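Field reference: "sequence" (input) and "structure" (output). Example, RNA methyltransferase:
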Amino acid sequence: MSAKSNQRGAKAPLLGSKIKLNIEKLAIGGAGVARHEGMVVFVPQAAPNEEILAEITLVKKNFMEARVVEVLSASPHRREPPCPVAHTCGGCNWQHITEEEQRRQKHTLVLETIKKFNRDLEFNYLPIQPSPRVLRYRNRIQPKFKNGRFGFFARNSHQIVETMDCLITEETLTDKFAEVKAWAEKKNAKDLQRLEMYIAEEGDVRYGLITDEDDGIGFSQVNRFQNEDLLRTALDWAGDGPYKKVYDLYAGAGNFTFPLAAKYASSEIIGVELNPKLVERARSKITDKRMTYFMSDVETYMRRASIGKDDLVVLDPPRAGASEYTMQTLAAAQPRKIIYISCHPVSLARDLNWFFAQTQKMGIKYKLDRVQTFEMFPQTDHVETIAELRVDS
Ligand SMILES: C[S@@+](CC[C@H](N)C(=O)[O-])C[C@H]1O[C@@H](n2cnc3c(N)ncnc32)[C@H](O)[C@@H]1O
């Protein structure tokens, strides 16, 4: 096999060959980023500012992937993971990096991603908000069971890493692992069982199977400790109002909707959510005639919504972000303020680009006022971001 050439004409090493790499930073997805002869190399389980011996595992036209063979000069941010199965378990990909450095990387990643899609956008970028807990923060997990083995999927595999603990999960849940394993064993199923365990709003532990017919409880914020800070920030940034209408798009079971209804006591409150279970849960809690919960896809809802200039819009889409149509329609509607909560920097950056392309096209003065990254998922590369957009008067 001959050496492949990358875009710039440099010779890429052959698949399987070993090279020395310096890790510059971490990328979305969690891998370390290095450069070899001008080509980007992604290396999972690497740490920033370290030299490694790496084996090339994938060669593409514009990038390569490699695995760490040996750490030649360890990063000052590298550490022994607190969890004994962290090296094999697919649950956490940043346990080998100190929490301080995890936050620094996330803070930089979000800024760089927004700037990549929106070069000229100016905004106030606040320091990252650390999570009150770096371990024992998850209140909803999906363990696996097969042939007597209870645990989590190994990294990039459907093999089960056996464990009777998970350090990022609240002890209220891990204390029940033995009970859940015994429950799964009794079912005597040879096939893989995907389980879900969570702490219900009432405080008790619930668990069950996730099947093709039943996808579990649906979305809920997994870090209730950090969710409190996020909620407080969203309400604070939303300002004093008053608003005629307050929209909560991608509303889930009402995490933001009910506090918004309490704060804006004279506003009409509208929640929009696709998942019927979450809509049902939210509707069962509504006691106020000002509140309406629509079971709808947000884009479909936007086709008939009449968002006005005296309104507030909060949106918290899934990782895929909102659609181009949704962002364009929001821009054209010119609500006084928009609070965008994001769990994926790339979709946030792209959505902002769609939004500001539309305001520019229509000659509307709108401003990205402030952005803050929240550490919602310590020990992983996942990150939450909140952004405030408002009419620029
Ligand atoms: C990141 S969660 C946020 C939920 C809620 N804001 C919270 O804090 O709990 C995104 C929510 O959007 C819902 N969703 C996903 N796609 C949707 C769509 N196209 N239209 C409406 N809701 C959608 C999901 O079911 C999920 O509840």
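Residues 218-221, 250-252, 255-256, 272-275, 278, 297-298, 316-318, 343 surround S-adenosylmethionine (CB under 6 Å).
The chain has three domains: 18-73, 102-132+223-391, 140-210.
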